[in-house]
Task: structure prediction
Amino acid sequence: MLGNKITDILNIKYPIIQGGMGNISDPELAAAISNAGGLGTIGVGTLSALEAEKKIKIMMKHTTKACCVNIPISVNPETKQIVEAIIRQKVPVVSLSAGNPSIIIPQLKKNNRKVICVSATVKQAKKAEEAGADIIVCEGYEAAGINALNESTTMTLIPQISKNVSIPVVAAGGIADGKGMAAAFSLGASGIQMGTRFVATKEASFHKAYKQAIIDSTDESTVIVGREFNKIRRIIKGTYSEKLLDLENREGSITEFIEKTDEVYHKIGAVDGDLVNGFINGGQIAGFIDDCPSVAHLMERMMKEAKDALNGSKEMLKEEARHG
Result:
């Protein structure tokens, strides 16, 4: 079953967490992930507290299992009101990213919520643990969407953060199957978080053009935009990414870049399916994804793959010892 500290803390079956997807978050997809044994998550992005609470209600309506809301602290101007909505709607788990979690954690812990903090450095992870976080998600820059400026990879982050904190660590970025999960476990993680892989599932309400773009991806299909402005984001290559790169190359303004990467254009790409006038996030692992299964089938398959990979590693080590 691969039950561990993550499954115990979050009261879930599998150590698999859905990454927050900002304004395009699909509450019914999040509910399906929770119902299948993982931790479904909706991200509030730049949504108003009223819009966020509507999505929370839909998610809670479709599942009685543990579920989560992700708040990008420095991105959303109504963080305080959203925290109040989360408490009011009895969401059991909260994920905090893109900002200082210490200003929010005390209120969440006072109301018996489990807190996940997304970190991209050892320093951030240690501060989150000191502030009272229950779990650390270490996210490498292989991941889709907005990323940290240091651009550390998942494989280098997991062992370093695991070594420096005492709370459980979850690996995010570059994982889409059970072998990736097994690798994360081997490096010190107790669970994984995925975003891109869950986009290409039957329950996800994203446009078929978005799902197909992921399925058609190769190892070279994603690109980082925004380095020129210290606002890095990983998206899938296409007409819109070329526009953003052209903006950087001609030394356009940061104001224009922020406008062009607003969640409005994210929705145009991911939900409306207009890949000329909007963008779609995608992690580097997109090139590995070639099907669109149900959420339940995907997670069951991943758990079997992880067990097989871990058992295979044990057998390899035994064989090595016999011939050593």
Residues 113 and 279 are 34 Å apart (CA to CA). The two ends are 32 Å apart (CA to CA). Residues 208-285 form one domain. The chain has a mean pLDDT of 93.
